[in-house]
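Dear H.,

Thanks for agreeing to be a second pair of eyes. The structure we're designing against is below in token form, covering all 418 positions.
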């Protein structure tokens, strides 16, 4: 995950400064620990505070249960060996709930962002009443919370990863679900509270699922130093997200990234969004399966598409190649507009990359005006397995804990009204 080591101004009071510095140290231990072993000396060098100041902050974080220490670590430099520091594997945790067209996935992560609980159920949510879908999701989440408590993890909040236009706690429009103006946060929170009598309510937030998958890719994926990229996820629909300089670009109303509804052909097939010829109608899961002659209601239709493509089935290979060409044409416009370092393809596209990437790369090479795109350049990439929306949602909850650990010290499952 990205650290935010921003210094405070000179007018900040002592308590604010200390809380800020506790956040810096906690983030630094997490980041150092992800790369190897963290020590007080290493954290001091990373955050720019004296060793004495870091030691005092570390002691407070140890006492509060956010950090643990063990053994000695040898840096190879002169001086005494340091004590290895790690973020605690117990205590505050985040709950992420992804609600998609044909499944619900729930994830609980700890302070390090490690997925500790995962439950996924394949459900056909199309046409089902929103309250029913969110109640089913709350049931899966409640079971995940029970598993988390068995590991001495205490989720401090829940985040919903939802398809479509998400803003102000509601799904404004999710064409593939048939949702319009659905107060998703309120419905989910009410259902979850009803399943956990006697326990404090969890605060609930929500975000577009492609945005959260992109954040998971940024924080946990294999992007290395890449901080600006366009993320596409292929499912029933085609979702997109923009990350620029390590920050999610939401747009003026929070709706940026809806690349699946960029029009490829104004006279093309009618889309559920109300337009015609959207990219989704050429590169979405239903379009791919239809072109390949695969029944989308059969068990494992995407796995069957991959199997046929791998076997050299001409119709399957042609279907994926055509989707790749359409993706490349639309992506070239986005690349010309925002100039990302890379384009990352997730969802069903990840497993179809051997047949999807070459035609997409070819379109990008011919249409990106800078001339900086070429086949095999590595700028078109498959997402990592870590880049999923449920984990991104759970990790987003933990950003509040990392930003102000004092606010969560000694707390189990706080009751917070939205």
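And this is the sequence the design step returned. I haven't edited it by hand at all.
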């Amino acid at each position: 995950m990205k650290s935010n080591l921003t210094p405070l101004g000179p007018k900040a009071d002592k308590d604010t400064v200390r809380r800020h510095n506790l956040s810096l140290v906690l983030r630094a231990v997490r980041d150092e620990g992800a790369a190897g072993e963290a020590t007080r000396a290493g954290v001091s060098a990373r955050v720019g505070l004296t060793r004495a100041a870091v030691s005092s902050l570390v002691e407070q974080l140890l006492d509060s249960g956010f950090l643990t220490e063990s053994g000695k670590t040898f840096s190879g430099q002169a001086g005494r060996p340091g004590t290895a520091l790690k973020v605690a594997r117990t205590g505050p945790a985040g709950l992420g709930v992804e609600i998609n067209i044909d499944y619900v996935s729930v994830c609980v992560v700890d302070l390090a962002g490690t997925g500790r609980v995962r439950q996924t159920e394949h459900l056909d949510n199309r046409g089902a009443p929103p309250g029913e879908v969110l109640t089913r999701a709350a049931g899966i989440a409640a079971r995940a919370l029970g598993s988390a408590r068995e590991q001495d993890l205490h989720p401090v909040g829940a985040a919903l990863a939802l398809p479509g236009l998400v803003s102000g706690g509601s799904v404004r429009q999710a064409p593939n679900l048939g949702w319009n103006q659905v107060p998703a946060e309120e419905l989910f929170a009410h259902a979850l509270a009803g399943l956990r009598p006697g326990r404090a309510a969890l605060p609930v937030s929500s975000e577009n699922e492609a945005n959260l998958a992109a954040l998971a890719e940024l924080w946990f994926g294999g992007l290395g130093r890449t901080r600006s990229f366009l993320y596409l996820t292929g499912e029933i629909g085609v979702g997109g997200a923009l990350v620029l300089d390590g920050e999610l670009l939401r747009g003026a109303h929070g709706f940026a990234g809806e690349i699946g509804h960029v029009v490829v052909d104004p006279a093309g097939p009618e889309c559920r969004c109300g337009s015609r010829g959207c990219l989704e109608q050429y590169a979405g899961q239903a379009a791919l399966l239809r072109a390949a002659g695969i029944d989308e209601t059969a068990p494992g239709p995407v796995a069957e598409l991959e199997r046929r493509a791998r076997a050299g089935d001409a119709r399957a290979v042609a279907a994926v190649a055509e989707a790749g060409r359409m993706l490349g044409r639309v992506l070239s416009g986005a690349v010309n507009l925002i100039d990302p370092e890379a384009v990352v393809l997730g969802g069903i596209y990840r497993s179809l990359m051997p047949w999807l990437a070459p035609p997409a790369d070819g379109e990008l090479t011919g249409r990106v005006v800078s001339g900086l795109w070429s086949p095999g350049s590595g700028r078109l990439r498959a997402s990592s397995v870590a880049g999923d929306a449920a984990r991104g949602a759970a990790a987003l909850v933990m950003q509040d804990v990392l930003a102000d650990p004092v606010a969560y010290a000694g707390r189990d499952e706080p009751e917070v009204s939205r």
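Two observations from my side: The longest strand covers residues 153-162. Residues 414-418 have pLDDT under 50 and may be disordered.

Warmly,
E.
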